[in-house]
Specification:
alpha/beta, Aminopeptidase, 15 helices, about 20% strand, globular, zinc, manganese
Length: about 450
């Protein structure tokens, strides 16, 4: 398939169950909008390239603004570039129900990650306009900026700015893939650093947040379900462990007289792969980055730095896993006469989803004849940032083969539209009941 023949809309509609176009929700409209956005930043592999704060992300946001206005929303852009559409409802002074996601992508990503969350929320607003539904509380739809972080090797930039979580000093030092400063880059898309710093808003403005997202895994596919209820978002905790031994000649140092840092690190990597399942089913630990020094073929490694990504949806069990990993590293280092140092380099708290919100999603699924299925999110999302401050929920949509961040990323249109119906019923249920704020 060549670039000129790529047509996501037609692919989506080819096996769509048209009976799902109901109650003001249109599968055809959702397919059309996914198709429009898929052509912005289209790669030779039929993937998507829309880095945060790029002209491509800006073009996608311009379409979102147009569609928000079509749904009768008031639209504004905050200092971080987040696009916010608002329906006042009958009581505009009440805190808002918020929904959304992002439209930026990884360098050669798919066409559903993030995008489906924004367009699903838009379908809810559009359905209300078409059916004459008037919400009691305000609804806000947000297209967050730079969730993926591919430009500055970070991510969740827009949601952090809105929630007041940005490390401003760190942002000032960031450089993008072309060596340009953060301030230079955002100036190119009509933003300013002063405006960015003022993008935060009171958390009390938001009653709750809900995000539709593709699963990026295989659980729903194995269960043969179109969508599922997220129980919590696993916060990433990164450890840097340095194993320091003694470099030496590979030929002249006997095997019995070595302090080989890589051998110790190798044993450590093997053992930690068995630790998470001993603590919690949703816990994971990954070593994806190691540095070997001096890194010579004929030199015994004198120092190895290992980065461990540790995640779970519960703070207590995640901490148990962290402690177990550190203890394992200490035990192995001692047995191999290696000096060990440990350092935390990244720590985002997990976000468990309130049972009250999960129950509302369960009721919505049962009302649509879908078997409720619960699963954790191992990946971070804008909901992870917003959820640190206000009650937040997530709906996952089935992913074909669990593939994501890849041009082959795919979710059937029928699954996406069923998730929209669940989102719609969920948001409407929130209109008649106040959700208790976080402590």
């Amino acid at each position: 398939m060549t670039k000129s023949t790529f047509d996501l809309e037609q692919q989506l509609l080819s096996d769509f169950d048209s009976k799902l176009t109901a109650e003001g929700v249109s599968g055809e409209r959702l397919a059309y909008r996914l198709g429009i956005l898929s052509k912005i930043g289209l790669t030779e592999d039929q993937g998507s390239r829309r880095p945060g704060f790029s002209q491509e992300e800006r073009e996608a946001k311009n379409w979102i603004v147009k569609w928000m206005e079509e749904a009768g929303m008031q639209v504004r852009e905050d200092g971080a570039g987040n696009i916010i559409g608002r329906l006042d409802g009958k009581h505009p002074d009440k805190p808002v129900i918020m929904s959304g996601s992002h439209v930026d992508t990884v360098p050669n990503g798919g066409h559903f990650d993030g995008t489906i969350g924004v367009l699903s929320a838009l379908e809810v607003a559009q359905s209300w306009k078409e059916t004459g539904y008037a919400p009691e509380k305000p609804l806000e739809i947000v297209a967050f900026t730079d969730e993926e972080g591919s430009r500055f090797n970070g991510g969740l930039t827009g949601s952090e700015a809105m929630m007041g979580d940005t490390d401003i000093e760190a942002m000032q030092t960031k450089k993008d893939f072309d060596g340009r400063s953060f301030e230079e880059v955002i100036n190119d898309v009509g933003l300013s650093f002063e405006g960015f710093k003022s993008a935060g808003r009171p958390h009390s403005d938001i009653e709750s947040y809900v995000e539709v997202h593709i699963e990026q895994g295989k659980r729903l596919e194995k269960e043969q379900l179109p969508c599922g209820i997220v129980t919590g978002i696993a916060g990433p905790y990164w450890l840097r462990l340095t194993f320091k031994g003694q470099a030496g000649h590979a030929g002249n140092t006997p095997m019995t007289d070595r302090q080989d840092a890589l051998v110790a690190a190798g044993h450590f990597i093997h053992y930690i792969s068995h630790l998470p399942q001993k603590i919690n089913d949703s816990a994971v630990a990954t070593v994806g980055n190691i540095e070997v020094k001096p890194n010579g073929t004929n030199v015994i490694p004198g120092e190895v730095i290992v980065y461990v990504d540790i995640r779970d949806i519960y703070e207590d069990t995640r901490q148990q896993l962290i402690d177990a990993i550190i203890q394992t590293a200490e035990d192995i280092s001692k047995s191999w006469a290696i000096i060990l140092t440990c350092e935390t380099v990244h720590n985002v708290p997990p976000v468990p989803i309130k049972k009250e919100l999960q129950d509302k999603l369960e009721k919505a699924m049962q009302g649509k004849g879908i078997r409720p299925y619960y699963l954790p999110s191992g990946a971070g999302h804008d909901a992870m940032i917003v959820g640190q401050h206000v009650p937040s929920a997530m709906i996952f949509v089935r992913s074909k083969d669990g593939i994501s961040h890849n041009p082959a990323e795919w979710s059937d249109l029928s699954d996406c539209v069923q998730a929209v119906h669940i989102l719609k019923d969920y948001i409407e249920s929130c209109q008649s009941h106040q959700i208790i704020q976080q402590n």
